[in-house]
Design brief:
By secondary structure, the protein is of the alpha/beta class. The protein has 15 helices and 14 strands. It is globular and about 70 Å long.
């Protein structure tokens, strides 16, 4: 049943876990290494908690750094983060760049953001993400923001152009399942690419850790897309209007996959929005979409055995169980295909195309033909449904996949193991479309 297993990895599971303070902790780790890089080992020693200072002396720190420089060269940068909460501690894995190569390190912080440990981490076996060529870091800056809700908060990043003010801003809304602020999938970080590419063209953005990543235990009961996506997106839209330099009349939502499916719904609840961008957005019911994915992956697997066919039939039966329109005798928290019944009822009773027809916002629909998760069929439904809407624009990209990177073939999820950046042509088109409203 490999084809089905692969499908749900892409739809509902992320392999990274992000803490609330990941940006702040990244900065602390970078400052710690940069302080040692400057030879200020007594200052670096003060980054540590008192309980650790007695175990690692200033001379031992100096010796560690000299050995590190001998092997890896001069310290240059830090990028890419994995984070998790271990009891009362935050554990952050960062890829640190040196003149002779890169090396992952694990840093352990307490709640006061004091170091309680750091050590070399094994290098990952799959290819590493690389910052896009169009990401000119001299043109933009990033600072941490918080997306708050009643029970907690998620870390976010406000990326803004350095050389302009009164700029548009884009709120990035994730697809299905837990996700970090970069919407990391394998070796791809589409939201990070988009933020850098847009900022270099004078457009700011907010991206944030998805609530289901930071607070997974709050999703062990009945919930809907309100808790998973919509509430936090609206909070981010409200926050955008308070940030320095932002043009409050130019706030947009970039919804990817499920985020695009819900973008019209978000627009009905966020009157300050100027427009929405639907990227690889399902226009059909989720069950129809998953059925199409299931069929595609089954055929691509080449499994014609009796057992394989039986697994495909059973998978189709499981998918059909999600077509709920009301709970009836089914408990709201009954799990069906990885989500509670309440979730499916909510999704199935919402018509995203009909909602998009009613809103007055500008709409841009974009779709890649190499996308095996959301097909051109959905794009055509959006285009047909919004044909009479003068505020709607449409663009299809023959070579882009679901993560909006250029690919030679439609393929499957193994593509995501290889690093590829969001296509610059797509970023250019989004920038032109946004600026065209000024």
């Amino acid at each position: 049943m490999k084809f089905l297993k692969a499908l749900f990895v892409f739809l509902f599971i992320s392999h990274l876990s992000f803490s609330q303070s990941v940006v702040s902790l990244m900065n602390r780790a970078d400052q710690f290494f940069e302080t040692m890089n400057q030879g200020k080992f007594d200052e670096a020693h003060n980054f540590m908690d008192e309980s650790v200072k007695s175990q690692i002396s200033i001379d031992e720190l100096k010796l560690f750094w000299l050995r590190l420089e001998n092997n890896l060269g001069t310290y240059q940068s830090v990028d890419g983060a994995r984070s998790s909460i271990k009891g009362e501690y935050y554990q952050v894995m960062l890829t640190c760049g040196f003149s002779k190569g890169s090396q992952p390190f694990t840093f352990v912080f307490n709640k006061a953001e004091k170091l309680v440990g750091f050590f070399l981490a094994p290098k990952p076996t799959e290819s590493q993400y690389a910052l896009a060529s169009y990401a000119d870091t001299s043109l933009y800056k990033e600072e941490e923001v918080k997306i708050k809700f009643a029970e907690g908060e998620m870390a976010g990043v406000f990326t803004s152009p350095k050389s302009s003010s009164n700029f548009p801003i884009v709120i990035m809304v994730h697809g299905s399942g837990p996700a970090d602020m970069d919407e990391t999938v394998g070796s791809n970080k589409p939201f990070k690419d988009l933020a850098a590419g847009l900022a270099a063209q004078g457009i700011a953005s907010i991206r944030y850790v998805k609530r289901s990543m930071v607070y997974p235990n709050t999703f062990n009961k009945a919930f809907t897309v309100n808790e998973e996506v919509i509430d936090d997106a609206i909070t981010a839209v409200t926050l955008a209007g308070t940030l320095p330099g932002v043009n409050k009349a130019q706030i947009y939502v970039f919804g990817h996959s499920l985020g695009g499916m819900l973008a019209p719904r978000i627009a009905t609840l966020a009157p300050s929005l100027k427009g929405i961008i639907l990227a690889a957005a399902p226009a059909r019911k989720f069950a129809d979409l998953i059925t199409e994915q299931n069929e595609y992956l089954y055929k691509a697997s080449g499994d014609t055995s009796t057992a394989g066919k039986q697994q495909f039939i059973e998978s189709a039966m499981d998918i059909d169980k999600t077509r709920l329109l009301k709970l009836g005798a089914i408990a709201a928290d009954s799990v069906i295909l990885g989500a509670p019944a309440s979730y499916w009822v909510d999704l199935n009773n919402h018509d995203q195309v009909a909602t998009a027809k009613k809103i007055k916002n500008r709409i841009l629909v974009i779709q890649g033909e190499k996308d095996f998760q959301v097909s051109v069929r959905d794009f055509e439904i959006w285009k047909s449904g919004l044909a009479a809407n003068k505020n709607a624009s449409f663009k299809i990209y023959p070579d882009l996949n679901h993560l909006l990177s250029v690919q030679k073939e439609k393929g499957n999820g193994t593509q995501y193991r290889l690093p590829a950046n969001v296509d610059i042509n797509l970023i250019n088109d989004i920038s032109i479309w946004i600026k065209g409203s000024n």
